[in-house]
Design a protein that fits this description.
single chain, 170 residues, mainly alpha, 6 helices
Length: 170
């Protein structure tokens, strides 16, 4: 959660070096969590069912990762699109939804985005080229902030619901 929060703080002029602290914290956290998570799951079952526990943990990790990636990606795309549309509107450039979607392909070098840019004047195309990376970074920071909030919510559920039940058993 802390590593993802660090990644959500990047600025438009970020360098790869500025990503290192967040990536290191994420790697350390995942390394510590995943091994202890599997060990706790396997140890909590009868030895005859330990392989079932390990399989269930792995299944939920994969399914949760896919679901989380889908949610974060959808939020990233929506957030960056809103930012791009508002930034271009401030500059007096109003694009249709289809044009906006196509323009977002500028970063990946999509041919359709290049063709659309060539249909605008040189000044408008330059403005769009400057706005796309800013919208991209805005989407990334918003997506990582969403992940941070989801991680915090999960932590609170585990702390009060799971840990609370364990304390009540004593």
């Amino acid at each position: 959660m802390t590593g993802v929060f660090l990644l959500s703080r990047i600025e438009a002029d970020f360098t790869y070096l500025s990503l290192v602290p967040g990536m290191c914290v994420i790697g350390l956290g995942l390394g510590l969590f995943l091994s202890s998570n599997v060990a706790a799951a396997v140890a909590s079952f009868d030895p005859s069912r330990s392989s079932l526990a390990g399989g269930l943990v792995l299944m939920f990790q994969i399914a949760g990762g896919a679901l989380g990636l889908g949610i974060t990606t959808a939020y990233f795309v929506a957030s960056s699109r809103v930012e791009l549309k508002s930034e271009l509107a401030r500059e007096g450039i109003n694009l249709s939804s289809g044009q906006l979607e196509t323009v977002q392909g500028v970063l990946s070098g999509a041919e359709s985005a290049k063709a659309l840019l060539s249909s605008f004047g040189r000044e408008a195309a330059s403005t769009i080229m400057e706005a796309v990376p800013d919208a991209f970074v805005s989407g990334i920071t918003d997506g990582f902030m969403l992940d941070t909030l989801l991680g915090l919510a999960g932590f609170l559920v585990a702390l009060f619901y799971v840990a609370g039940r364990l304390r009540m058993r004593k």
